[in-house]
Design a protein that fits this description.
elongated; 8-stranded antiparallel barrel; mainly beta; 6-stranded antiparallel sheet
Length: 261
Amino acid sequence: MRLTKFCISAIIFFGAFNGFSQDIIQKLDNSVISCKVVEISESSVIYKLWDQLSGPNRSLARASIVKIVYENGQIEFFNEKESTISKQTISTEAPAVKNGTSSDITQSTGASDEFVKPELEGLNYAPLRVTAAFNSLGYFSLGIDGESKIISDYVNIGFGYWGHTFSNISDYTYYSFRAYTSIYAPINKLSGKLDKVNRGFFPFFQPGADMVIQFPEEGGTNFSAVFFWRVGEDYYLTDKFGISYSFSQGSLNNIGISWRW
């Protein structure tokens, strides 16, 4: 229970902060909006006007947007078929005045017109874990396991090695070599957060088998094979590093670290 509370607290107190930057939205009618993009959903873009950052959030339908030029120069396209409009670049400067009337805006972001829509990173959940396991009977073990993708985005195959110590329920040292299938759910991908598919929660269920090698005190070596299961989740704090907790047969609590290889 204390371990579970610790894991939950660690996740709650972890946060990430976005930089304070100016973005520019180009609409289908060729008008531009200087703003700070707050959120992008499947149907709309939520933003604050650049000169009213303390004001209310505003919403704009995705269908009315050609592209967003972010402060760092990255361009995200929303309606690529509007090619004649999206060929233009954008400027936040006031339009020039010619013969008493406003001329067309000369747009420039300092970036090339040849920008293409940035590719979102694909899901790459193939974790390598180092884990300690224990229970209330004094059992303790330490192991490492790694996975490789076999079915796109939902099923991995994994292999691991574990060393087990003396406890109240065993009077000998033994080792196990593990092979298992990992069935998991990429929560951010399933919820539509495609820019963060390699972060967040990855709940999993892992059935498999252990090849056990025992070394009893009286001598000799014993071999056996046993069914194994584990249920839990990884939480990735970044695209490459996270923490892991699971519960497995024998009332074992497993806690460790997880990273992409």
